[in-house]
């Protein structure tokens, strides 16, 4: 679990009115969103470039008296735009209020079975939180020493498999051929691939959904499309899986996406040029950042994401993170076995990366 800023709510004593499940929850702690604006914020993998101007125009155009009306509960325009982009049918697309919501619905709709759900020991720390919320039994499968996912380790009875690709917080990419290998051997349960970072360096498994009716690919507009503040996520899979998500969604909230989010997200998929341009800029900055960190003596895992995962052989990661913070640079540190000596650093704007590197050089020179 991540320990960063203590959630004040979790330190309050239990209340007699709580439903029993609330006592058992260990909520996810998101990366800090500091109120100070002068910070170099490299802790939550936001895109340093703004969203497409066409997204902003589309949202402005939606600002009218029509806000008194409910949005389209099925967000059909958006499903069509996503279907066009990924060359699938709209009935193979599900949308939700951020991919965190899509994932939560997938855990409930598709991953809750008597056999345990499998996921890597080092991965997105929200997965065990959903298991706690829904009472899903799970087993973590250790990544290899080099933090690669070995698909053969998942060839065992299970009630579902989920992993992030590229993985978080390591940034390592699992090749599509390995995912196909896993799907060939795992026909009886759902495999969810969480592709929050896929556009920064991998090929999407959406190419496999027509071949495997048990594959669900989850993506977000928060990272490569610079819309973390709009809260839009999606899933692509066989219509049978999408139908399960719709059934749970329509038993919970009919309108997860508001009118502004639908309009902005449609425009985001239509403006391919802005998307290509900004994601290439982030990838180029990542290559430079990795080289500069290695120059400073860091060991950096190969990253296909918009962040890098790095450790210094001679420096304590928690101390480095604290020293960076004193210099107004915030990165993410996880107090978790196997990775406590790593820092997860978001690839920022070139100016932010330069500020990070200057601060690190200063800290390392101080000894
Ligand atoms: C950021 C992230 C998400 C959540 O994205 P939202 O759409 O903003 O909710 C999901 N999975 C992983 C691995 C992420 O890093």
TrEMBL record:
Its cofactor is pyridoxal 5'-phosphate. SUPFAM superfamilies: PLP-dependent transferases (SSF53383). Its EC number is 2.6.1.9. It catalyses: L-histidinol phosphate + 2-oxoglutarate = 3-(imidazol-4-yl)-2-oxopropyl phosphate + L-glutamate. This is Histidinol-phosphate aminotransferase. GO terms for molecular function: histidinol-phosphate transaminase activity. InterPro entries: Aminotrans_II_pyridoxalP_BS, Aminotransferase_I/II_large, HisP_aminotrans, HistidinolP_aminotransfase, PyrdxlP-dep_Trfase, PyrdxlP-dep_Trfase_major, PyrdxlP-dep_Trfase_small. Belongs to the class-II pyridoxal-phosphate-dependent aminotransferase family. Histidinol-phosphate aminotransferase subfamily. The modification N6-(pyridoxal phosphate)lysine is found at residue 223. Keywords: Amino-acid biosynthesis, Aminotransferase, Histidine biosynthesis, Pyridoxal phosphate, Transferase.
């Amino acid at each position: 679990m991540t320990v960063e800023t203590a959630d004040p709510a979790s330190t309050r004593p239990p209340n007699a009115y709580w439903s029993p499940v609330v006592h058992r929850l260990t909520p996810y702690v998101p990366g800090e969103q500091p109120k100070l604006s002068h910070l170099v914020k490299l802790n939550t993998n936001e895109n340093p470039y703004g969203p497409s101007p066409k997204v902003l125009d589309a949202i402005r155009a939606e600002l009218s008296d029509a806000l008194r009306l409910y949005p389209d509960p099925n967000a059909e325009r958006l499903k069509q735009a996503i279907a066009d982009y990924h060359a699938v049918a709209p009935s193979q697309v599900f949308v939700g209020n951020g991919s965190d919501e899509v994932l939560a619905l997938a855990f409930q709709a598709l991953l809750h079975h008597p056999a345990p759900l499998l996921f890597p020991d080092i991965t997105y720390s929200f997965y065990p939180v959903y298991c706690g919320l829904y009472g899903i039994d799970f087993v973590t499968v250790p990544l290899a020493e080099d933090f690669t996912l070995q698909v053969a380790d998942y060839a065992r009875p299970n009630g579902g498999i989920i992993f992030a690709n590229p993985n978080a917080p390591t940034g390592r990419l699992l090749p599509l051929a390995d995912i196909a290998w896993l799907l060939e051997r795992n026909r009886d349960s759902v495999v969810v691939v969480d592709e929050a970072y896929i556009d920064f360096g991998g090929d999407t498994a959406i190419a496999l959904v027509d071949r495997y009716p048990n594959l669900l690919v989850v993506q977000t507009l928060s990272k490569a499309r610079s819309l973390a503040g709009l809260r839009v996520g999606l899933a692509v899979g066989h219509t049978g899986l999408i139908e399960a998500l719709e059934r749970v969604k329509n038993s919970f909230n009919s309108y997860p996406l508001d009118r502004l989010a639908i309009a902005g997200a449609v425009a985001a998929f239509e403006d391919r040029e802005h998307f290509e341009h900004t994601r290439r800029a982030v990838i180029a900055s990542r290559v430079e950042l990795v080289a500069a960190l290695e120059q400073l003596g860091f060991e950096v895992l190969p990253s296909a994401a918009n962040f890098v995962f790095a450790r210094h052989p001679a420096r304590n990661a928690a101390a480095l993170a604290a020293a960076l913070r004193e210099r107004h640079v915030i990165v993410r540190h996880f107090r978790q076995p196997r990775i406590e000596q790593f820092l997860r650093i978001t690839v920022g704007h070139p100016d932010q990366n330069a500020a990070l590197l200057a601060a690190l050089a200063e800290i390392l020179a101080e000894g």
